[in-house]
Give the backbone structure.
Amino acid sequence: MVRPPDFEALYAADPDPWHVRDSWYERRKEAVVLALLARERYDHAWDAACGTGALALALSRRCGQVTASDSSPTAVALTAGLVQACPNVTSLVSALPAVPPLTALPDLVVLAEVLYYLPAQDRSQALEAVTAAARAEAEVVVVHWRHHPDDAHLSGADATEEADTLLQQAGWRQHSRHDDPDFVAASWVRP
């Protein structure tokens, strides 16, 4: 049985457990995610597993409003500290598949490095919740380390394929995709 990490304990022990600030992988992944986006500007983005907030900060430059949520209160506090000079970013504690209280329906939802940590039923419910909470013209982005973390339920490649299947069954179409040896990222829009 897979036991996902205790994210609160990880962030409490190390404010940057995945070295987001100084890892070339993380900086490159963020740049690719931003390049995949279909539009230059968005009204409201929801970063559904914000971690330390680096992506939420980057999104704040392209979005009128950003809701950054995470299951870890420490991660949310770290995000709040990082984006304190960004009045358009709100940080909230919320764990998928739940949807945090959103002030507006998002037209961009980002699921970064989170789906593979959820059990199958929660992954499906999370994608259903995301699509139900999103505007009709929204875009959904999924990005994962390609491989299979020891503490995850499936590989990032498999999590992305599963998301593709579920989103396409719900009427979304894949807009763009990036595959490389380190990570896989894709975005979907509604026709």
Observations:
- The longest helix spans residues 120-133.
- The domain at 42-189 is CATH 3.40.50.150 (Rossmann fold).
- The chain has one domain: 42-189.
- The two ends are 39 Å apart (CA to CA).
